[in-house]
Amino acid sequence: MSLGHTMGLFTRPDQEWEAIRNDSETLSRIYIGHIFLLALVPALAGFYGTTQVGWQVGDGQIIRLTTASALQLCGLFYAAMLVGIYILGRFIDFFAATYGVQEDNPRGVVLAAYTATPIFLLGVIAAYPNIWINMLVGLVAVSYAVYLLYEGLPILMKIPEDRGFMFASSVLTVGLVMLVALFAISVVIWSAGVGPVYVS
Predict the structure, then answer these.
(1) Cα angle 155, 158, 161; round to 5
(2) Within 13 A of 111's CA, how many CA atoms are on the CB side?
(3) Strand positions, DSSP E, the chain
(4) E strand or H helix that includes residue 3
(5) 3-state secondary structure (DSSP) of residue 101
(6) Alpha helices in the chain (DSSP H)
(7) Interatomic CA distance for residues 90 and 23, integer angstroms
(8) Closest-CA residue to 116 (of 70, 151, 73, 149)
(9) Which 3 state secondary structure label does DSSP give 158?
(10) In the structure, what pLDDT confidence band is assigned to residue 200 with cuts at 50, 70 and 90?
(11) pLDDT band at 2 (very low <50, low <70, confident <90, very high)
């Protein structure tokens, strides 16, 4: 199962990337065995945190979302993660030929999915929506995801490390552009009336 690689990415990433390469993951297997399950972690934690715990700005009152609003927003967030992994993976496959990847089997979605693993798992912190703690844990998750990208791409794609570094930098750039685009889409969606509804 794809989830079997999860712990190895934290304890022995080099060997785990080799094992992932030898597994020859299919698109359906990586989604069913990894992405669908792990993407639930931040979505469910966010639902619990925004409806049951709430957050506070300064000494103000605790703010919570209504159940319907939180369900809607967390559902959209979950869908965005699933689609985002696929789009980033396709960009990786598109760039592969430029960096001399000699593979018949595209591995972009596999790379994107396993690279996002720390972000999925550490998304559990959304159950306690404190802005400073969430930012700190988020920074750790993103930093380790970037490390996995730079470490795993040359292994998974079987290319030299210097080309792997340039390839990974291109992927990181696309990921940042996608993040900005997600923020822009969120603003559009909120202005269309799908924004948060607070418990009064």
Answers:
(1) 65
(2) 31
(3) none
(4) none
(5) coil
(6) 6-11, 13-23, 27-30, 36-38, 40-48, 67-96, 108-115, 117-122, 131-157, 161-189
(7) 19
(8) 149
(9) coil
(10) low
(11) low
Burial annotation 123-139 (CB, 10 A radius, 16+ → b, else e): bbbbbebeeeebeebee
* CA distance linking residue 41 with residue 161, whole number of Å: 33
For 106, counting Cβ atoms within 10 Å of its Cβ (0-12 exposed, 13-18 middle, 19+ buried), the class is middle
Residues 6+ apart with CB under 8 A from 20: 5, 110, 114, 152, 156
Locate tokens 């418990």: which residue?
199
Q: Can you read off the two tokens belonging to residue 186?
A: 């969120």
Tokens matching residue 156:
């998974």
Among positive and negative, which fits the CA dihedral 88, 91, 96, 98? negative
Identity of the residue numbered 106 = P
Which pTM value belongs to this model? 0.91
